[in-house]
Amino acid sequence: MENKKILLIIEDEKPIRDVLHTKLESEGFTVIEAEDGKKGLDLSLEKHPDLILLDLVMPKIDGMNVLRKLRGDSWGKTVPVIILTNLPSEDEGRNRDITELEPTYYFVKLDKGIEEISDKIKERLGLL
């Protein structure tokens, strides 16, 4: 990868953060981690990562509010955000809220493998 791309993983489950971090770092990405929504939002606005992987259910600030606050920021309104969650996408109210906040992708963790997530990141960043 010629230009290092910075990815921010905002995920409260350490095993998931560790797997994503190891995989993405092995593919040449610079990876930053946050274990809760507040830290993730602060790091996002400070570091301006090229892409954010965001869980929805987290301590301090949930993922929906992180995404709302990002979309309200001049930089954050265009940053690619991939939602990784265990919440199914069938909830119509949540789907409408998420759609309005324009995430790049919405993945249910149990339905997607690490390779597919990695490919979607590369695709979104124009690396495929």
Structural features, described:
This protein is an alpha/beta fold. 41% of the residues lie in helices and 18% in strands. The chain contains five helices and five strands; from the N terminus they run βαβαβαβαβα. The protein has a five-stranded parallel beta sheet with strand order 2-1-3-4-5. β1, α1 and β2 form a beta-alpha-beta unit. α2 (37-47) runs parallel beside α3. The chain is globular, with a radius of gyration of 13 Å. The chain starts with 5 loop residues before the first strand and ends with a helix. The model has no long low-confidence stretch (mean pLDDT 86).
Features:
single chain; five-stranded parallel β-sheet; 5 strands; alpha/beta; 128 residues
Topology:
Elements (H helix, E strand, L loop, with lengths): L5 E5 L3 H13 L3 E5 L2 H11 L3 E4 L8 H9 L9 E5 L6 H9 L4 E4 L5 H11 L4
Parallel strand pairs: 1-2, 1-3, 3-4, 4-5
Please outline what is shown here.
By secondary structure, the chain is an alpha/beta fold.
Spans of at least 5 consecutive residues with low confidence? none
Intertermini distance: 10 Å
Largest sheet: 5 strands, parallel
Radius of gyration computed on alpha carbons: 13 Å
- Strand percent estimate: 15-25%
Helix content: 40-55%
The shape, in one word, is globular
Average of the residue pLDDT scores: 86
Succession of helices and strands: EHEHEHEHEH
- Would you tell me the structural class of the helices and strands? alpha/beta
Major β-sheet strand ordering = 2-1-3-4-5
Query: Number of helix segments?
Result: 5
Number of DSSP strands? Answer: 5
